[in-house]
Amino acid sequence: MKSICVIPARYSSTRLPGKPLKDICGVPMICRVWERASRAESVSEVIVATDDARIVQAVESHGGRAMMTRADHKTGTDRLAEVAEQFPDVEVIVNVQGDEPLIEPSLIDALISEFAKDNALQMATVATELQDADEMTNPNNVKVVVDRYNDALYFSRSLIPYPRNAGKSQTFKHIGIYAYRRQFLLDYAKMEPTPLEQAESLEQLRALENGFKIRVIKSSCRFVGVDTEEDLRLVNEIYRQEASS
User: Fold this and answer.
1) Smaller CB count within 10 Å for the chain: N or C?
2) Band of the pLDDT at 163, cuts 50, 70, 90?
3) What percent of the chain has pLDDT over 70?
4) Which long-range contacts (CB under 8 A, 24 or more apart) does 78-86 make?
5) Which pLDDT value is given to residue 132?
6) Distances (CA, A) of 104 to 32, 38, 71, 99, 221
């Protein structure tokens, strides 16, 4: 089953301008993401998809592959689909965010393995347990609830499930790493935005509202997405600790 990993990356960022090229221990962040994704055993290629020549230059100088995509894409999914159109022989495409420099390569392999086990599966993602009360109530942390088969029931910026009976259920944070069957990705990118998607500003709800399942892998890996200078300092410290260990 041929699979590739695509990392969408835009230069502009409201909270952290030029985010993909921010330095992490001497290497641009987008190159750190590419490095870690490239360690996954199940992908034949890792490609950075961007609309900025500076990002292409950084990735190629680091030995990676980057593709220029249109500048008018509204979402990372649209950018991903543009790349997918150019790989008709690929069956599964994994989307790793360009601001996840601590992505665990084994998670990419685990996502792909779900498609090998379930021929009907079209889309999969990742979640990790939340235990910090502030993180639970923070709307920037997207929560997900799943059924007994680990398929998503709902994603929300609100706390779900509501803890009416404390200790009866776990709270999981959604991690924005996705895997798709190629044809589903192309179809999904063409679907019209849906009411719940627009209300929560969560694109993955479009799949659920159209009746598709999203498999959720639960992980204990450490995730630190980079949205602020403080996040960047933390990730640099983690990389320094890894280098000295």
Assistant:
1) C
2) confident
3) 100
4) 78/189, 79/8, 79/49, 79/51, 80/6, 80/8, 80/49, 80/180, 80/185, 80/189, 81/185, 81/186, 81/188, 81/189, 82/49, 83/6, 83/47, 83/49, 84/6, 84/182, 84/185, 84/186, 85/186
5) 85
6) 12, 10, 29, 13, 7
Mean pLDDT of the residues in the chain: 94
Task: Please report the DSSP string for the chain in residue order.
Answer: --EEEEEEE-S--SSSTTGGG-EETTEEHHHHHHHHHTT-SS-SEEEEEES-HHHHHHHHHTT-EEEE--TT-SSHHHHHHHHHTT-TT--EEEE--TT-TT--HHHHHHHHHHHHH-TT--EEEEEEEE--HHHHH-TTS-EEEE-TTSBEEEEESS-SS--SSTTSS-EEEEEEEEEEEHHHHHHHHHSPP-HHHHHHT-TTHHHHHTT---EEEE---------SHHHHHHHHHHHHHHHH-
Confidence band of 166 (pLDDT split at 50, 70, 90): confident
Amino acid, res. 232: L
